[in-house]
Fold TrkA protein.
Amino acid sequence: MLALLAIHIAQKSGIPSLLLFLALGIAFKAAGMHFDDYQLADTVASLSLMVIIFYGGFTTNWNMAKAAAWPAITLASAGVVLTAAATGFFAFYVLRFELWEALLLGSVVGSTDFASVSSILVSNNLNLKYNTVPLLEIESGSNDPTAFTLIMVCLAILLKQDISIPLLVFEQVFFGITLGFLMGWFCMAIIRRFHLAEDGLFIVFIAAAMFGTYAICNVLGGNGYLALYILGIYLGNKEFIHKKNVIFFYDGMSNLVEIALFFLLGLLSEPAKIVQFIPVGFLVMAFMLLIARPVSIFALLSVFKTRLNQNILISLAGIRGAAAIAFAIMAVNSGAPLAIDLFHIVFVICLFSLFLQGFLMPWATKVLDMYDPSDTVLNTFNYYQFKSPFKFIQLRVKPQSPWCNKTITEIDPQANMIFVKVLRDESGADDESGEKTTSAEPAAEKLTDTVSIVPSGDTRIYAGDVLVVGGEGFFDHSGEELEEIRVDSQHPWVSRQIKELALPAEQLIVMIQRANHDLIIPDGNTRLKADDRVVLLSQF
């Protein structure tokens, strides 16, 4: 009940709700509730992170986030390494920590926290310009595995284990990625083969797949968190019956484990030690906020030509939270000889990070002119697609389209649909390809050149615009009428137009995926190319 009250207070005041959950735990500890079981806390933290990371991947719309994927992945890998190293050397040279303990501290707090970042974005409805929200979502959802790998390296050295560090890193990454994809493929094969929902086993199966993936990956020496994130992305971007039920379940479960985790972490802390480590924690947090993260952001994102105000806000969004504290507990339980109180130092860092960055982000968003009032971060169109029959598609307006140079009121789509958004390229470059594309990376969705317009009746449509259109969706429950055909260089269809194929009346090519991953909605004049994947609808 107190947690629900904390959520209500957070929504009204703008205070990060996760900070209030921590405060609740600290208050109960100060009131006399004794809890110091680090082993139990480690188990709860690991289970919670598994749910949070899997759900973060599951709700990532890859098609919409793909334009920001490379910058995000760069930050989630190289960015974590740079931030962790810089923080570690700061602790070594300035705070006089032992070298590998300092680097362990940097690794523990090296990743941003998905739960904290998403909580602040959603609670303040902060939609950001230039495709920044998907970038932050992918970065914060996928950078924990990198931090985990760095922690494994530091602990191996502190424990004087006779292992090959390059081999350890390779195993963590290779088995994590490979097993994530393999388990995703296996799960989809089971889902399509058996009717689990009819027996009430669907949610149980997904949960078993999640825990099984983590366990198998750990046994093989891989990164279980990375495997879970890949598994989540793979399953979340597939269509299957009762997918909404999975969303409902994990939406509630992720909230529950976040409440439990932050409350437990607050309960595990000791108020006297929190006060004792305020100076150290504040210095480390300030260094990360003002130097370590901005330097890594500006250095790595310069390749992608992102804007100054965007880089500053991304630097500010590097919030530390549950993952860092959970990793600190794991390090304490590892048996490594530590001269520092890693848990309470990290705890203080996260407290300051949640408090300062949580309050600064809404203000900085407006000051830096990064707020996009024409859209909402609550869904990036995912929420309604997952939780209702309402679906969105995007259509590119070609120069020869009858909609070109007309206002919305002049367009009669002759269908039960609504124009939701117009995406326009500031450069004004028209698409002359002559094909209707649903690629997630059209010209109007570049990382920095997008203008997003909420259309009214007077909005005029131009060539090159991408129209986001909403309507009631359809889902083929059997999936048996669809067949995927790969057109290789020797296939009889290669280099031929669809109208030349003489398909039976009961067959229709509904979609083509190019080798560059563009999705083409074909017409009779569309010419098939080598390495195309053709989705064929057949009704006999």
About this structure: Residues 378-385, 429-447 have pLDDT under 50 and may be disordered. The longest strand covers residues 417-425. The chain has 19 helices and nine strands. The radius of gyration is 25 Å.
